[in-house]
Amino acid sequence: MTENEKILFLPHVNPRHPGAVKENARLLQRKFAMIHEALSIFENPNGKEELKYFSNLYAEVKPVLISIVKFVTEKKIADRRGIQENIKRAEEILGFLKILHLRYKSVYTFPPISDKPAWYKYSQMENREIMEELKKLISL
């Protein structure tokens, strides 16, 4: 191997670029870590800032999780037990975030999205109970 060929393999010359799915998985992992940290800090589960935080996280996490699930199903690797369990848990977390997102939108957005907020269709749980469930799911 010549000197010029050796230079090509140095990290600063030829950096590795992770695939889009790996990058999305890392992003999803960081977002879930943010949820874990936020749950230990937030004191008022019905507060505007708390609900806004989870609403924004829902908006950020949803497209990332959709792209990961799409990749997993297209490549037919969803049958692997560990992958299937992790995706199911991530979808449960997304479901709880959706409830908090809908509650934020129905209470704190002006004008309201509708006269009849739809979050009650998803869950009758209180925000505090949802946050406790999120703590359990993320700490697994």
Total strands: the figure is 0
Give the proportion of residues in helices.
55-70%
Mean pLDDT, all residues: 79
Q: What is the H-and-E element order? A: HHHHH
| Quaternary organisation of the protein chains | single chain
Report on the biggest sheet: none
Helical segment tally?
5
- Content of β-strand: under 5%
- Helix and strand composition category: mainly alpha
> Using only CA atoms, what is the Rg?
20 Å
The best one-word shape is: globular
Sequence stretches where pLDDT stays below 50 over 5 or more residues: none
Distance between the ends:
48 Å
List keywords for this structure.
globular; 5 helices; 140 residues; single chain; mainly alpha
Can you put this structure into words, describing what you see?
It contains five helices and no strands. α3 (48-74) runs antiparallel to α4 (81-108). The protein is globular and about 65 Å long. The chain has 140 residues and is mainly alpha-helical. The chain has helices at 3-8, 20-41, 48-74, 81-108, 127-139. The mean pLDDT is 79. The N and C termini lie far apart (48 Å). The protein is 69% helix and 0% strand.
